[in-house]
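Researcher: For the annotation table, I need structure tokens for Diguanylate cyclase. Please keep the output clean. Sequence:
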Amino acid sequence: MMSTAEYLEDPAQAAERALALLRRESGLSAAAIWGASGATWQKLAGFGAAEGLPSAELLVGGRLPGPDGGALALRMADKALGWLVWRGRAPASLADIAALLAGHLHCAALREEHSAARRVNETMLEISLLAGEGASLERLLPRLHRLMSRLMDVGNFSIALYGDDGATLHFPFYVDRRDPAPPSPQAMLPLDDGHAALAAWLLRGGKPMVLSGERIVELCRQEGMPQPAALPAFWMGAPLANAAGGFIGAVTLHTYEDQPALTSSEQLLFMFAARHVGFALDRVLYRGRLERQVWLRTSELEGANARLRAEVASRKRTEKFQNALFRIAELSNSSLSLEAFLSGLHRLLSEMVSARNCLVALYDKVNDRITFPYCADEYVEALHPRKPGKGYIEQVLHSGRPLLVDPYSQLAAPDEEGGVRPQSWLGVPLYCDHELLGVLAVQSYDGEASYNFRDQEVLEFVANNIGAALARVRALESLQQAYAELEQRVRERTSELDAVNAQLEFDSLHDPLTKLPNRNYFAKALRRAWDGYLAGSGDRFALLFIDLDRFKLVNDTLGHLAGDHLLFEAGARIRSCLRHYDFLARLGGDEFAVLMFGMDGTEDCELIARRIVSEFERPVILAGREVFSTASVGVVLADRDHYHKADELLRDADHAMYCTKQQGRQGYTLFSHQLRIDQADQLALESELRRALEEDSQLLPYYQPFIEAATGRLTGFETLVRWQHPQRGLISPALFLPMAEESGLITRLDRYMLNAACAQLQAWRAEGRVGENIALHINLSSANFHDPDLVGWIGERIAHYQLPPSMLHLEITESALIDQPDTAATVMQALHELGVKLALDDFGTGYSALSYLHRYRFDVLKIDQSFVFDLDRKEESVAIVRAILALAKALDLDVVAEGVETAAQLAMLREMGCGKLQGFYFAAPAPARGIDWERLARFERDIPCAA
Ligand code: C2E
Ligand code: CA
Ligand code: CA
């Protein structure tokens, strides 16, 4: 019998074995066993004339094999699993064998069912897993198709899905053995394509659908749908639903007539699988949608994010620019120099762009030059001003537009200075009020920083905002420079002024020639000494007034250089006589003064005064000549009993010196009480002279005649003043003329005398006492040369008294010529033109005598009485007189010898050929009415005899 293990056999084997058993045990002529295979029947085994036996379909339909046979349904739990049909006599064991066979078939069916179910489950699981894999629809659908093919023949298979709009259908997967072209995914309208139309129609119905070929034809006609290009014999479709029950598309399967039709279990399986495919696709689609949504959302968010970032960046940039603007403003306000401003700007710029190398170029329109007020560069130390060339800077200046040069730029690199060529260069123009000032540029030598348009924007922004600041700082700087220059000049000027002031102060207190203190300084020192003496804090002191005798003569004869030398030497000599604490000053001209401290008595003063005087006895060598310049000294001892003011001391010392002069110079005079009285007297005399000049009675002209030496004839008179003082009696000119000179009254006195003399001459002429050959000499002080009206006035007087001008001889002393040589020349020329004669008085007393004779036009020369006086005593005087006479002869001058007192003098002068003579020998000066005309006439007779 059959073991249980045999149940596991193949149904066909089991059927064979069952028939073999039956053959053995009975006389059956034929038998067959049918097994259910899905919805159909399959002959599992048979023998004999089995073909004559009815098939399973017939048996099911109720047909029996006939009377000589039988048929038995093989059942298990009322389920027909097969048929046993036979012909012949059935053995007794048939029922058992049939039951065994039924059990066998049942097992096989179960086994078949189980494996099919397992396959389906596995497939469904894989479909679900497929959905979970996350693959895209395109990759998923072929795999889905492969999985489906495990379950059934899916040679013609399609999946239709709704588009996102939920209305159109498309076919992401379509296979067809006859019509490989899938329905167009674009043309998703149901009417476009037969298959698409069927799928759409299916979805409209919302139910799985199985159609035969005829039904399709009928349906298409009914619905007005296109037929599929190749008409299937069988068409089946199921909607694809999602978990919520909504349709997402459809899955279809069809076969053509040459293919086996699908069994009903396959159809059921298809519908079952469709549900899984629906869920799986829904998941995938959902995920796709989700992903799309996520992607969309993400990109939306990313967009928003980018927008925000851009906004933030732009805000930051605005902030940065704003900040830069503030800092530029701050910089321009706080920078004192252009350099400080520009380096600050560079720092600021570095925070915004890569600006390791930065330069500012300014264009100087006036000089057509480019200057570089700022240059920070890795390779270039400094840029010097230059004429515009062909550089990048020039290109910016020329175009007035930014210039960006990078390694990829087509711009030909110009020859920039420095040799190293930048990899990237960015320059923008600097404007101020539309005026192009220059260029702001940054450059990079390595590839690290390559400038772009953002950098250009930054640079332009900065450039736009520094133009005004630059102009302002530049103006400020030039202002500062101007200030600095001004300050420097003020400093220089101040120090110059200080030096000048110091010099001035020194100058104001010192004599430039001898470098000794001057009158000013002396006055101060004197006052201080006096105050100290009065207060008891200082020593008693003496004041010496020193005047060089005949200094003016030296000065004029030997020149100013010699004069200066003499003064210098004089200062040194005086100094040598003093103690170091004595104060020596040059008061002016040839006047010196000394303050000698610690003087208690007159002896000390006199000692020093004597020393000084003797110091000047040595000659001074000037211009190779030995010159004797003696000194006249006046001494005053400070005395609080007699003086109130320091000035009084100086006045008295001066007076004492003057007394020395009057006493014949070269010596000293100690100011005494008597001198003070005399001085007071002088002051009284001055006012008295003033009064005397206003009346005619006091000042009297005396006349002293001139006698011609050869003939004894009267040739003229000299007018000499005498003062008939009401109290003092007759005063000689020696006593009041110095006072008249000093007080300036002398000019009035001279006019007075000249007028009186002219009147007298007119009178004499009227009386017939004198002819035109008589000369009337009048002394004229040098002070008159200052009087511009003098010549006019004299001319007027001459006219007034109707005198021939040549009768008047004006006597002038050398001192007049020394004091004002030019004025003297002018006045003398004018007098000469007037027709009056000029006589040089006291000739021979000065060194310059000879030069005067050449320089001025004199008519007469008067030999000083000192020579005449010595004539019979000193050989030297004879020589001098001879020389003078020779000179006068050569110059064609008349000569008058003064002071002829003796016959010997007369004889000598006559012998020497002197023209005219004057002196007591002939007559003393006498008033007009006192002239002894008789006596004068006698000389004419006597003198030749005397010779
Ligand atoms: P002086 O021009 O040289 O005048 C000659 C002086 O010699 C006069 O002195 C005269 O009296 C004096 N004298 C004449 N003969 C002899 C003589 O033989 N022996 C001596 N020892 N002396 C004699 P006087 O009149 O005292 O005048 C002195 C000086 O005063 C004059 O010197 C003259 O320079 C000046 N003087 C006189 N009258 C005037 C005047 O009206 N105006 C001006 N500016 N000066 C005058
Ligand atoms: Ca005279
Ligand atoms: Ca004289």
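Researcher: And a one-line annotation?
Model: The two ends are 229 Å apart (CA to CA).
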